[in-house]
Design goal:
A hairpin with a 2-residue loop joins strand 10 and strand 11. This protein is an alpha/beta fold. The chain contains 11 helices and 14 strands. The structure holds pyridoxal-5'-phosphate. The site of pyridoxal-5'-phosphate has 15 residues, from helix 3 and helix 4.
């Protein structure tokens, strides 16, 4: 058996007819930038996320960039981000001119620890960017409370957690303005780059609309300094088709995760994902941890099973962030996760027989 880390085979088969129709409609509409499809997708995504406004953006990083710009965050400001996130979260803070301040995650959930956030707040702190890593929302109740007490903005990075909830409320609907990505491999993925911001604040939505399109709300009238960070019309058309399947695909991911959870109990030193009681996890990734991570990954590769490491080097140890002056040991929790984590295949269409094959290989590795 050969099991790739990610396969689009099943989701593509489910949407192929719809996608071809969507392409034809888009093509015939002859409105290739900010047309009917972007507008319709924005409405549909807002409904799905139970948020008032969605503004389609070119990709997830740009959605973070626009969120911070819309909040007027810039030079001299500090923004608190998790020490174990994907680099994009940190880059957005750098791009707006502010300073990223890293806070450690909770080792059980891998999400930013509210206590660590509190320790990092200074007079310069303007915002917090909680990242709902691997598909599990952060403790948004406590994070919003901390933000309220210190007069801080919250920008959720919801790239990995579409449709996940904290106490029944959707991730991406808590913060003042929130960013998401529809990179092809995300739970909701386009056929290229795509992203969005979500907000309940009409002024922030309007600002995002202007920022993404040259600072303009009306053609050839430029009220602010903007960018070209628009969601592509054809990607919006494709996303509309896939959005209809997202809830079912999410249930499938959760069912696969439940199988792994059941079948991988008590396997060597393997640590399985832990979901907070208040959270629903949408399993963008199924991440296990072991001291023998590299050996396990090699063993699974030889057995024909694809795995990935999310992420092998935390932001503070990346060359790009050398200037922050951190060395190994600065963020021990993030470093521990980077050294021990391994993401197993989890995609809609992965069968129980394939899960069994993966589980058997993992057990064989630990039992010799
Ligand atoms: C994918 C991702 C991004 C960036 O999204 P792009 O669309 O690739 O720019 C940002 N943050 C997190 C947590 C991500 O997983």
């Amino acid at each position: 058996m050969n099991i790739p880390f990610v396969s689009f085979e099943f989701i593509n088969a489910a949407v192929k007819t719809g996608m071809l129709q969507a392409f034809e409609t888009f093509f015939d509409n002859s409105m290739y930038i900010l047309g009917k499809e972007v507008e319709a997708f924005e409405k549909e995504y807002s409904l799905a996320l139970q948020t008032k406004y969605t503004v389609g953006i070119s990709n997830g990083l740009d959605a973070l960039n626009i969120s911070l710009k819309a909040l007027n965050i810039g030079e001299g400001d500090e923004v608190i981000v998790p020490s174990n996130t994907y680099i994009a979260t940190v880059l957005a803070v750098t791009f707006c001119g502010a300073t990223p301040v890293l806070a450690e995650p909770d080792i059980a959930t891998y999400n930013i620890d509210p206590e660590a956030i509190k320790e990092k707040i200074t007079a310069k702190t303007k915002a917090i960017i909680p990242v709902h890593l691997y598909g599990q929302p952060c403790n948004m109740e406590v994070i919003m409370k901390i933000a309220g007490e210190h007069n801080l903005f919250v920008v959720e990075d919801n790239a990995q957690a579409h449709l996940s909830t904290w106490k029944g409320k959707m991730a991406g609907s808590f913060g003042h303005i929130n960013a998401t990505s529809f990179y092809p491999g995300k739970n909701l993925g386009a056929l290229g780059d795509a992203g969005a911001v979500t907000t309940d604040d009409p002024a922030l939505a309007e600002k995002a609309v202007m920022l993404r399109n040259y600072g303009s709300a009306k053609k050839y009238q430029h009220d602010i300094i903007g960018y070209n960070m628009r969601l592509d019309e054809c990607q919006a058309a494709f996303l509309r088709v896939k959005l209809k399947h997202l809830s079912r695909w999410t249930t499938e991911r959760q069912a696969i995760a439940a199988l792994y959870q059941k079948k991988l109990q008590n396997t060597g030193d393997l640590i399985l994902p832990v979901t907070a009681a208040e959270a629903t996890h949408v399993y963008h990734q199924f991440v296990v941890r072991t001291a023998k991570r590299n050996e396990l990954q090699q063993y699974l590769t030889k057995a024909g099973i694809g795995t990935l490491i999310h992420y092998p080097v935390p932001p503070h140890l990346q060359k790009a962030y050398q200037h922050l002056g951190y060395t190994k040991g600065a963020f021990p929790v993030a470093e521990d996760i980077a050294d021990t984590c391994l993401s197993l295949p989890i995609w809609p269409g992965l069968s129980e027989a394939q899960v069994d094959f993966i589980v058997r290989a993992i057990r064989q590795f630990f039992n010799g």
